[in-house]
Write a structure and sequence with these properties.
This protein is 27% helix and 31% strand. It contains four helices and six strands, in the order E-E-H-E-H-H-H-E-E-E. Strands 1, 2, 3, 4, 5 and 6 form a six-stranded antiparallel β-sheet that branches. The protein is globular.
Amino acid sequence: VLVEPMLPAPFVEAVVGIHRDPVFGHVCTFGLGGVSIELFKDVSRRLLPLTPASARAMIAETRCHELLKGYRGQPPFDIDALVDTLVKLSDFVAGHAGHIEELEINPLAVRPQGQGVVALDAVLSYQGTEPSTW
């Protein structure tokens, strides 16, 4: 049995996914996460590698951005930590491009400004050697 603490509110559920496209290579998807991704289909996409500027632009293209800035009495959320996470995931996948087929974090909880992000669920699909040998 694994017992973990609940993540206290408030936070915004986001999704970050990177998959290998057979034509374009690795593509990053960002948007509103949790069950909302299927309902609202509010996503933005970029080819890897991401820079801080391209990650910030991805976020700004979504309606999720309005929630992240602080909406209807909610605090502003940690967009800087989200940008940093997108760039670091991009760098990780680029460094293991021959192995990673797909990486998805859904939901990625974006906490209030200065409190960072927390991956609540993640999946990594790879080919070839075991990740422990990378």
